[in-house]
Amino acid sequence: MNHQAVKCDSPVFNSSLISTDEALTFLLDSAVVVDCKEHVSLDDSLGRVLASDIHSNINVPGFDNSAMDGYAIAIKDSQLPKTKHSFNVIDRIPAGKVGGKLKQGCAARIFTGAPIPPGANSVIMQEECEVSEDGTLITISRSIKLNENIRPTGNDIAEGDVILCMGKKIQPQDISLAASVGVSELIVFKKVVVGVFFTGDELVDPGLPLGPGKIYNSNRYALVSLIKQAGCEVVNLGNVEDKLSATCSALENLEKKCDLIMTTGGVSVGEEDYVRPAVESLGELKLWKIRMKPGKPLAYGRISKTPFIGLPGNPVSSFVTYCIFALPYIKKMQGNEKYKPKSIKVKANFNCKRAKPRREFARARLDYSTGSPVANLYPKQGSDVMSSIVWSDGLIEIPEDMTFEAGETLNFFPINELTE
Fold it and tell me: Taking CA atoms, which of 139, 156, 252, 300 is between 20 and 30 Å from 396?
């Protein structure tokens, strides 16, 4: 596909802005896993992150068992090639019962999961057995192989196996696997406690009337729900007055009780942006302004020993920078081994005629009508257009300093990879 690297020389986006890759690497290298661990029951473990490997102390299954409803038989090796066999039925073995020993030429009615009785060397499914009227004799009209439909001891898990590894985010299937080996509790990392507050005297909570120049605070509800979806506990101070003293007070309050502090707004260069100077007065700012769109004014630093991430105030910018930077940072703090979002390759159904000075994460929806996924852009890509996030399937990554025509293959991040 035709594309060309083009250096953008805009003076607005100079070397003082750190690249997206450099910013993400710096953030992830700075993230420290919470050092507290706790025991939780299986019922309370969903979505938590394992803090130690889980070993099995048993074999699963713990005994040879039947994979079918049918008949367990004891057959001589010399009889295997024959195409017609008869067996006397002398036992009935439901799941949970142990049958008696079978002599050669004998069979036992057996059900799925029931232990294979001593002496039995194959199980024939009931549909292949002709049963006498009184149920005491079965006839099988085909040759038989040894160990048909028998699940051997340890077929799923062997004693001593590591069944779940440290750093895994626990899913329902993991809980089932742990239960299958008799584990009733799991050791997990403590939940990350994230403190949040929101700046902007123009913000009004939903349900209240809007005065002149006011807007509803959507960032508050987006960020809190995203953090909760990540499995964190949230300490929410709500809206904080646009004053340096109020901002400093909120940061000091959260520093004492949280593992991470996050805000939206107040990190740009306006005279009413107090978050950045507040962080610098109480701690240090280590990263500010990313060469990306949307979301250039992303801040990272520390208040004492507590890390701080300041997201931009525009709703789309806040959402996107959370997905690209904050969530991977949180996942690494949680001890999650899979903290980076995965992308898929898609074809762009649009042109890029002019090189972009910043890497762009555009809202796009995938079209599968032609087979392979093709990405269509939402027509309005402004950082205030939150409806574009709802419409989209995810974000398509448009590299900086590059032009291309429709059909170019680009990275696409599905929305679930960016938010869960």
Answer: 300
DSSP helix/strand/coil, 165: coil
Which residues of the chain are under the pLDDT cut of 70?
1-16, 267-272
> How crowded is the C-beta side of 401, counted as CA atoms within 13 Å?
10
Q: Which pTM does this prediction carry?
A: 0.88
Please state the three-class secondary structure of 232-277 as a single string: CEEEEEEEECCCHHHHHHHHHHHHCCCCEEEEECCCCCCCCCCHHH
Number of residues written out for the chain: 420
The dihedral through the CA atoms of 238, 240, 246, 248 has a sign that is positive
Quote the pLDDT of residue 131. 97
Of the options 3.40.980.10, 3.30.230.10, 3.30.2350.10, 3.40.50.2000, the CATH number for the domain spanning 1-35+190-420 = 3.40.980.10
- 307 torsion bin: left (phi>0), alpha (psi -120 to 50), beta (else): beta
- pLDDT of 289 reads 87
Distant-in-sequence, close-in-space partners of 407: CB < 8 Å, separation ≥ 6:
1, 347, 348
pLDDT at res. 288: 82
Residue 328, preceding peptide bond in cis (omega within 30° of 0): no
- Structural tokens at position 152: 């051997």
Question: Collapsing DSSP states into helix, strand and coil, what is residue 392?
Answer: coil
Q: Is 267 left (phi over 0), alpha (psi -120 to 50) or beta?
A: alpha
pLDDT at 1: 44
Considering the domain delimited by 38-60+161-189, tell me its CATH architecture. Alpha-Beta Complex (3.90)
Alpha-carbon span 385 to 387, nearest angstrom: 5
